[in-house]
Design brief:
The complex is a heterodimer of chains A (406) and B (268). Chain A has 406 residues and is α+β, with helices and mostly antiparallel strands. Chain A has helices spanning 25-34, 51-63, 135-138, 143-152, 171-199, 207-232, 243-253, 258-283, 287-317, 321-336, 344-354, 359-386, 391-400, and strands spanning 15-18, 43-48, 66-74, 77-84, 89-90, 121-122. Chain B contains 10 helices and 11 strands. Classes of the chains: A alpha+beta (406), B alpha/beta (268).
């Protein structure tokens, strides 16, 4: 090896002295692990004390596609200046997640695996087939804030609900609650599975959204638990699932487009649910049920808030997208129209809760459910207008929305 | 131009993965290239001489054999890691072996007789020091995976075992194999390399047709590979290179010593 005057054997930032009498497995690991952390053309200095190790080290340099730019030897051993001859990583130009930064790029980098944004990615990493990689179709300005909010507002069905405080209610009323809880749990399964279905398609580059969807999934798990436990609390147990509800949830489940789903689920579905939960907060006959529903509503509000801001930004960027969403609602309606859509077991149970079981009370309850449906429609329109829809389109869409509420 | 056919020896299943990536990439770049797998270098060299393939991805031994029979043969391209390839001799630290001369009257283990790195060159280094096999030292060879010219490294692992069992006093192997052995924890703390060879040249893409129209196209295609792409970096990782390099004078001289060694051992 020729001595190169350009390189002086003075202090280098990365410098190791190998004193062992052979290149051990540990030293090999240390040297191998050094390479990814330096750039192409960076120079580091290695001194070895033993001659046998100098053979091995020179071999390591050759095998690892580095070159020796200078060598020297004296009584203390053999010193090498080594240059790394290849680039192994693509250095990230972005800060990692800290609750403030948002992703810079409109398109997630193609080479981006399961890793936090800001990591330096090795350029031989596999290409993941993340289909959802455009910021515009995923991002909402409030998503980081909503994630933080979700963290702060976690509750537990074990410790935040006083299960022992549920009073003994008339059997018809308790049965009505169990029916409503069955229905709510079914719908929450839908709200858990659907974000789950898309989650694995979203590039981790948009990690705040991925993490927020994670909170949605856990929120829904908690709701399913709490609603099921409430149905089972008085031995009545879970009641009837209906084809009407399942068909409605199925039509949402099979939707392949994330933007359409976000609108159908978060804006229309969970939006309508907020009114239903309000109704239950008002008419639930016992404080425990009221508490469960109140806590669930807080969570649902976050999900709706994501949908509102997400859909709004997409419509702002291109108002023609309203037509696209309208078509989504209408094609879903065409499927649902094949059969009766209303969950009559649910509506009847709501009437019992809102009015009572005797003839007069049930009539009153029925009236209140009718008013609820009307309010749901008005609020759907209001939310769509908030998203940037014109009133006429919003009204048409609202009319076509599933009678199952979600 | 008809499809450019490249001969490749299947010394490992990953060879298929490597060449599928190259072929897909060529297709994308509208470069008409395909590959043919051979089970050994002897058949591949014959196929090249018979012009059943246009180019062959040859070991140094296969290259020299081709050149012997087709004087116009040219080495086009190599991996950067094929330049200055080296071999080592290893012994137990307490064996009192520090130089090649110390191997006099010892029992030396080599790899397969068709492996430049594990047998042909190391045996020649001893001859250059005046040590004739089975006169000045006992020559032992483990001929495993013959036909693969040492690509599998199998014979080197076999001789390492025998050195560890004290069946041999010293062994010869490729430095790159020794690195893999350390990595895999197969070496023992009492083993020491006591000699590392000068650099020599290893594999190359061999062409035997003078003035063929495809050679420059092939070289440009290979040199132009986009190293930002993960399929290309994956292929390069598997094939152990960071870049392709042209075979120039320096690289060609890297075969000189091996040629002499093969003459001496009657390996042509």
């Amino acid at each position: 090896m020729e001595h190169n005057d350009l390189y002086q054997m003075d202090t280098y930032r990365l410098e190791y002295t190998i004193r062992s009498s052979s290149l051990t497995q540990a030293w090999l690991l240390r040297l191998n692990a050094l390479l990814p952390t330096i750039r192409k053309d960076d120079i580091f200095k290695i001194t070895v004390v033993q001659r046998s190790v100098s053979f091995e080290f020179e071999g390591w340099v050759q095998v690892n596609r580095c070159s020796l730019v200078a060598t020297s030897s004296d009584l203390n051993g053999y010193s090498y200046l080594v240059r790394k001859d290849f680039e192994s990583h693509i250095l990230s130009d972005e800060q990692g997640f800290d609750g403030r930064n948002e992703p810079v790029h409109e398109m997630a980098p193609k080479l981006f695996g399961l890793m936090p944004r800001g990591s330096h990615i090795e350029n031989s990493s596999p290409l993941y087939p993340f289909e959802l990689n455009e910021k515009e179709f995923l991002w909402a300005k409030n998503v980081t804030r909503l994630y933080e909010e979700a963290k702060r507002n976690q509750w537990s069905a074990d410790t935040d609900i006083e299960w022992d405080a549920i009073p003994d209610l008339a059997p018809e009323v308790e049965t009505a609650i169990a029916q409503v809880m069955t229905y709510l749990a079914e719908n929450e399964f839908s709200a858990l599975y659907i974000p789950g279905k898309f989650l694995s398609k979203i590039s981790p580059y948009y990690m705040e959204l991925v993490m927020f969807l994670g909170t949605i999934i856990y929120d829904e798990a908690r709701h399913i638990e709490a609603f099921s436990r409430r149905a089972n609390a008085k031995k009545i147990g879970l009641q009837y699932s209906t084809t009407a509800t399942q068909r409605s949830l199925y039509s949402l489940f099979i939707e392949k487009d994330y933007f359409k789903t976000s609108f159908l689920l978060h804006v229309l579905g969970e939006g309508t649910f907020l009114d239903l939960l309000d109704f239950l907060i008002k008419y639930a006959p016992d404080p425990v049920t009221k508490k469960i529903v109140t806590l669930a509503k807080k969570d649902e509000q976050r999900h709706v808030n994501y949908g509102l801001v997400h859909v709004k930004s997409l419509i702002q960027a291109n108002p023609k997208r309203m037509i696209y969403l309208k078509e989504a609602v209408e094609s879903r309606k065409a499927y649902l129209d094949e059969m009766s859509q209303e969950n009559e077991l649910l509506l009847s149970a709501l009437a019992v809760l809102a009015g009572g079981v005797d003839e007069e009370g049930y009539e009153l309850g029925f009236e209140r459910v009718e008013q609820l449906k009307k309010r749901m429609g008005e609020n759907r329109i209001r939310r769509m207008i908030e998203c940037g829809f014109d009133e006429e389109t919003a009204r048409e869409i609202s009319m076509s929305h599933t009678a199952n509420f979600m | 131009m008809a499809t450019l056919m490249v001969g490749v020896v299947a010394y490992d299943p990953k060879v298929v993965l490597i060449w599928e990536i190259i072929r897909d990439y060529a297709k994308e770049k509208k470069f008409d290239l395909d590959y043919v797998l051979f089970s050994n270098y002897e058949t591949q060299v014959q196929a090249l001489l018979d012009k059943k393939v246009d180019l062959a991805w040859n070991t140094n031994v296969a290259w020299l054999r081709t050149k012997k029979r087709a004087p116009f043969a040219e080495a086009l391209l190599m991996r950067d890691t094929d330049v200055d390839f080296t071999s080592m001799f290893i012994a137990h630290e307490d064996a009192n072996i520090h130089t090649l001369e110390d191997l006099k009257n010892k029992c030396v283990g080599f790899g397969s007789y068709d492996s430049a790195q594990a047998f042909i060159l190391p045996a020649y280094y001893l001859k250059e020091q005046g040590l004739e096999p089975n006169r000045d030292y006992t020559m032992n060879r483990v001929d495993s995976d013959l036909g693969k010219h040492g690509d599998t490294g199998r014979s080197e692992y076999d001789v390492l075992e025998k050195l560890k069992n004290n069946e041999y006093d010293a062994i010869a192997l490729a430095t790159s194999t020794w690195m893999r052995m350390i990595e895999m924890g197969l070496t023992s703390p009492s083993l020491r390399p006591f000699y590392k060879s000068k650099g020599y040249s290893h594999c190359n893409f061999t062409n035997i047709t003078p003035n063929a129209s495809y050679t420059n196209e092939f070289i440009e295609f290979m040199l132009g590979m986009d190293k930002e792409r993960s399929d290309i970096t994956k292929m390069m990782e598997m094939e152990a290179l960071s870049k392709w390099v042209r075979t120039g004078d320096y690289e060609l001289h890297g075969y000189d010593e091996l040629e002499k060694a093969m003459e001496w051992l009657n390996l042509f």
